[in-house]
Amino acid sequence: MRVIGHDGEQIGVLKRLEAIARAEAVGLDLIMMSPNARPPVCKIMDYGKYKYDQSKKANEAKKKQHVIQVKEVKVRASTDQHDLDVKLKNVRKFLEAGNKVKVSLRFRGREMAYVGRGREQLEHVAEQVKDLGKPDKMPNMEGRQMIMIINPLKK
């Protein structure tokens, strides 16, 4: 197996028992870094410190990742302009934060006769926020609900 010393220098190709003896002489562990290589690559290092550094790197990567949430805004086919402006303000705020927005429109009772009005309402919402996001899923009916998903634009 190819052995790398504790300070990073190449020791060379050694037999397994020789490599283990070298690691014990320094007071460290022999760790196999890539077992599929020909010959396998091992490194002399402190295993506890190695595992600690790995966990620190994993935690750091977890802190830096951004989880995209799906925020929902509910409107109605009969929602007035001022109320719709308030909902649009929330949609814009969610998109600026980098979240997906699900705009859902529920039809109750006789409102099912005005599905076209609901589609216009959702298309109006998409038109108003086109500078911040674009519709991933155009308005479509799911039972008594019409749903549209808007993705934020890349910065």
Give a brief outline of the structure.
The protein has 155 residues and is an alpha/beta fold.
Structure overview:
There is one protein chain. This protein is an alpha/beta fold and 155 residues long. 38% of the residues lie in helices and 32% in strands. It has four helices and eight strands. The strands form two sheets. A four-stranded mixed β-sheet has the order 2-1-4-3. The longest helix is centred in the middle third of the chain and has 18 residues, at 47-64. The chain is rod-shaped and about 85 Å long. The model has no long low-confidence stretch (mean pLDDT 89).
Tally of strands:
8
Instruction: Give the assembly state of these chains.
Output: single chain
H/I helix tally: 4
* Uncertain runs: none
In angstroms, what is the radius of gyration? 29 Å
- Topology pattern, helix = H, strand = E: EEHEEHEHEHEE
Described by strand count, sense and barrel closure, the largest sheet is: 4 strands, mixed
How confident overall, as mean pLDDT?
89
Strand order, main sheet: write it out: 2-1-4-3
The share of residues in extended strands comes to: 25-35%
* Distance between the amino and carboxyl termini: 48 Å
What general outline do the C-alpha atoms trace? rod-shaped
Structural class: alpha/beta
Helix share bin: 25-40%
Give me some keywords for this one.
155 residues; alpha/beta; four-stranded mixed sheet; 32% strand
Write the layout of secondary structure elements.
Blueprint: E1 2-4, E2 10-13, H1 16-26, E3 29-34, E4 41-45, H2 47-64, E5 70-75, H3 81-96, E6 100-106, H4 115-128, E7 133-142, E8 145-152
Parallel strand pairs: 1-4, 5-6
Antiparallel strand pairs: 1-2, 3-4, 6-8, 7-8
